[in-house]
Amino acid sequence: MKLVKVCGMREATNIREVEQAGADWIGFIFYPESPRFVHEVPDYLPRKSKRVGVFVNAPKEKISETISLFGLDLVQLHGNESPEFCENIRRSGVKVIKSFRVGDEFKEEEVEPYHGKCDYFLFDTQTSLYGGSGEKFNWETLLNYRGNTFFLLSGGITPGDAEALKTFSYPKCIGVDINSKFEISPAVKDAKLVKQFIKVIKNPGNKIDNKTLLI
Ligand SMILES: O=C(O)c1ccccc1N[C@@H]1O[C@H](COP(=O)(O)O)[C@@H](O)[C@H]1O
Predict the structure, then answer these.
(1) Whose CA is nearest to atom 15 of ligand 1?
(2) Which superfamily is assigned to 3-213 in CATH?
(3) Reported pTM
(4) How confident is the model at residue 213 (pLDDT cuts 50, 70, 90)?
């Protein structure tokens, strides 16, 4: 597992810190109900990390406008967007991540129509929210995923999960998405914790520093 996406960013200084910590992808939430909603273009946008825009059932026009305004590289769709909608957004020249909420059992039939219509899947926890719940699901459920689309693991991932993730070797999993469990306050990430986590994830020889976890 090599790729780390840090989602729910909003403030220029914090974005810069998280980029320097080694985040491959940095996510911005464009869902007005979220405490991480991005109201305006921050003074700094990542240059090295790829920019991901997260949307929930937003109209195509709104997504296109935001792609231009923020120079997005990827669009993450967290609502009930259809496979055709994903394909349509993909034609704008961005990569598309379709998120699915996973409950007690993995539903292959839910994801099946999306193969070939988007670039990646993201598996998050089934809750009453569209995302950002901080809740974890049973990762073993994904043993039933037989598809070929690469995916990101998400849902309540904590700094302490770095060790367990070293042995998470599902062939189609390309990385993890971290969010609320790394926050000091909504949309503000603890850059030290993010840095530690990335160091361990990318270099399995490293161990998580327990002192950092106590911050
Ligand atoms: O973070 C949010 O507020 C949010 C709102 C609506 C859709 C997605 C959202 N975030 C995404 O949710 C997952 C899991 O986050 P967490 O670790 O459980 O806090 C993550 O993919 C975020 O991109």
Answers:
(1) 132
(2) Aldolase class I (3.20.20.70)
(3) 0.94
(4) very low
